[in-house]
Amino acid sequence: MDSSVESLLDAYLFETNSLLMDLDELLINAEKNESLSQDDVNEIFRSMHTIKGSSAMLEFTSITEIAHHIEDLFFYIRENGIDSLDENHKKALFNLMFKSTDKLREEVQKVENSEPLDTNIEPFVAEINGLLNEISGKGAAADKQAPAAGGAAAPAAGSAGSAPAEAAPTSLPETDMPYLLHVYFTEGCGMENLRAFMLVNTLHEMDMKPFFYPSDIETNPETANDIIENGFYLGFPTEKDLELASKAVDQAQNISSYEMIQNPASKQEESNADLLVSAPEGAPAPAPAAAAEPKKETAAPKPKPKAAGGKSPAAPHHAIKQDLISVNLSKLDALMNLVGEIVITESMVTSSPDLKGLKLDNFMKSARQLRKLHSDLQDISMSLRMVSVSGVFQKMNRIVRDMKQHLNKDVRLTIIGENTEVDKTIVDNISDPIMHIVRNSMDHGIEKTAEERIAAGKDPQGELILSATHTGSEVIISISDDGKGMDPQAILEKAARQGILTKPEEEYTQKEILSLLMTPGFSTAPEITEYSGRGVGLDVVKRNVEAIGGTVTITSELGKGSTTTLKIPLTMAIVDGMEVSIGGYLYTIPLAHIKQSFKASENDIILDPSGHEMIRCMDDFYPVIRAGELYNIPDSCTTIDEGILIWIESTDHSFCLLVDSLLGEHQIVVKPLPSYLQQFHIKDYGITGCTILGDGNISIILDMNNIYSASHGYY
Q: Are strands 594-598 and 644-649 parallel, antiparallel or unpaired?
C-alpha cells in the first residue's frame, strides 16, 4: 500500500473510532437524562457528516450510506426540534442509534482487518428510514426534506457514480452567489475531487451551505482532472461567509493557493466591482468577465491593492501552528527499544572491567551527565506512550447499559480514576479482561430482582464500581459490585465434581477457592447465557493480565458483594532495580518496592502462632522470607546474621526478604521470559521476567506480590 494512502487510512481509523466512542458516551448520558439536547442533536449530525465525508473519500460505501441516512434522520430532528418526538420515538431513536454505532464500529473493524465490507445494508438503511418516516409522519416524503449527500447541488452518495463530469466553464461557473472562492490544490496531491468534497464538508460543519463547482465531486472521479485544470469554485451569499471560508481554506491541507472573486453575474448591485485577487503570485487566475468595465468599488470585500504592472500582490498565508500530531505506534515501540538498548550499553561502558582501579574523574563526570540525559530521554519516550484508561472505562458504560435492558436489572455504574495513565500496549490488553469481569458482575453478581435486594436490606438499584489508582510502579484496577457475593463452599463442591482439585478440600484457603474460578472451563453458572456460563471469561482475564506482567485477585463476602482486582505495571519497558545475590545467582528487585535494607541477628527473630518467622522493624512486626530456602538455592546464606534483610512494601503485604548481599542499583530493561517456561507457572512463585546487566550476565526479576503468596502456601 502507498505510504500516503496508508497514512490517510490511519488518520481515518483514528478519527472514526474516536467519533464513535464519543457518540456512545453522548448517547449514554442523554439516555440517562431521557432526552437529547439541541447540542446533542447538532453533535450527532456533525459526527455523522464527518464520518460520511471521510468514508466517501476512501470509498467505504457501507459506512458512507449508513452515516448518510443517520445524517438525514438528525437533519429532520434538528429542523423540527427534539420535542417533536414522543416518548416512544425517543426510546426507538436511542435503540436505533446504539445499534447504528455498533454497525458502524463493526464495519470500521473490517477496514482495520482488511476484510470486505457488508454489501447488503439495505435492511439496516430501511430501518433508519422507517424511523424517519414514522417520526415525520410524512412517509417517503420525509426524505426529500433532508439534505443531499454533497450539499444542495450534490447527489446522494453512491448515486450515478459513472456519470460524466460537468463541462468546465469557459470563465466563471453559472451562479447568483456574489462572492466566489477559487481554490487550487497542491500539484500531485491526488484525489482532488475527494479533497474538494472534504473541504465542502468542513464548511458544512461550520453551518455554511456554499455553492460549489464541479457539483458532482463526491460521485464522479473524473472531476479530479477538471479541478486540476481549472480549480475548484465555492460560492457564498455574504462577505462574512467568504471571510470564514477563507480561514478554513488557510487551515486545510494540500491547498497551494486560492483567490477571492466578486461574481459579475450576481444580481446584486456590487456585482460589477473589480475582481478581488488574493492568490500567491504565479497562481493561475480565472478568466475575467467578458467586457465588464471596472467601477468604483462600493461593495465589500475591499479590493486588494494592485502591484506595479497590474499584478495583484500575494496575500499573506500564515502558517498554522499544530500542537498535536499522530504517530504510528510502531515508531514509539522502536523508540522504546532503542532507549532500552542505550540503557544496557551505558551500563556496559560504565561497568567495564577495564576501568576498575583507574582514576578517571573526567570520564565519571561525563558518565553521570550521560546517565542524566538518557534518563530524561527515557522519561520522555515513556510519556509518549502513556494514555488514560478513560477510553476503556467509558466502553463499560455501553456494556452495562445493554445488559441492564437485556437482564431487566437496575444497575448504576460508578467510575473512579478514569484519568489514570498507563502504557498504550497495556491499555489495549486490559479492555477484554475488564469487559469479562463487568459482564460476570452484571450477570451473576447483582441480584436478579429488586425484591431480592430489598429483602437483603440493600438499595433496589445495584451498584457497579470501576476504579483505577496509581501505586508506585503499578496501576490497580478494581471492579466491585454490591451483589450477592460468592459461596466458597459451593465453588469448592463444584470444583470437586469437575475433578480439578489438586489437594484435599480442607486444605484450601478462601483465596485458593476463589482462584479456582479462573481455571479453564470452570463455571458455577447453572445455565449458559448470552453473557456467561461457558467457563472461559475469567480464564481469559487471567491469561491476558498475566501476559502483561499483572496479577488478578478475587475477594468476596457472601451477601455483600465481590471485588476483582487487577494489578498492572505502568510499563513493561524500563524500571529502576536493586541487584542482589542469592547463593551466587543474580536477582533484581524493583526499587519501587524497597523501603529499607538492614542487618539483623537470629536473636531478633520471633515466631507467630502459625510458626512463621517475624522481625520487628519501625515499631511493627513483619514476616521474614528466606529467598534461598524459597527457591531451594544451594550455598545461599542459612542464618539471618550472614545475609541482609530488605524491607519490602508490596501492594497487599509488607515483609522482609533475606538475601546474601546487595550489589547495587541499576536501571534495567525488562525482557519477557521464554513462552515455554509458562508451563511451569513460575510467575506464581515471584518470577516476572529477566534483564541483561552491563557485564552481559542475566538477572532474574522478582515479583514482590507473588513472592509473599508463594512463601505462605497460597499457590
A: antiparallel
If asked whether residues 597 and 682 sit together in one domain, one would say yes
Mean predicted lDDT score pLDDT of the chain: 77
Strand order in the sheet with 551-557: 411-416, 462-471, 474-481, 561-569, 551-557
Supply the pTM of this predicted model. Answer: 0.59
**Looking at the domain assignment, is residue 178 inside a domain?**
yes
Asked whether the beta carbons of 48 and 157 are under 8 A apart, the reply is no
C-alpha–C-alpha distance, residues 212 and 197, integer Å: 9
User: pLDDT tens digits, residue range 431-480?
Assistant: 888 888 898 888 888 998 889 899 989 999 999 999 998 776 678 899 99
CA angle at 337 for the pair 332 and 341, rounded to the nearest 5°: 145
Give the C-alpha distances (Å, rounded to integers) separating 553 from 488, 509, 546.
Answer: 15, 13, 12
Report the alpha-carbon distance of residue 311 to residue 309 in Å, rounded.
6
- Does residue 625 contact residue 587 with C-beta atoms inside 8 Å? no
State the residue range of the domain holding 203.
158-283
**Same domain assignment for residues 556 and 582:** no
pLDDT tens per residue across span 138-186: 544 434 444 443 333 333 333 333 333 333 344 688 888 888 888 988 8
Instruction: Give Cβ neighbours of residue 257 (< 8 Å, ≥ 6 apart).
Output: 183, 184, 279, 280, 283
- Do the beta carbons of residue 552 and residue 545 sit within 8 Å? yes
Quote the number of domains for the chain.
4
Domain-located, residue 348: no
337 located within any domain: no
Together in a domain, 87 and 118:
yes
Same domain, yes or no: 402 and 543: yes
- The CATH number that applies at residue 631 is 2.30.30.40
Task: Give the residues across from 580 on adjacent strands.
Answer: 587, 662
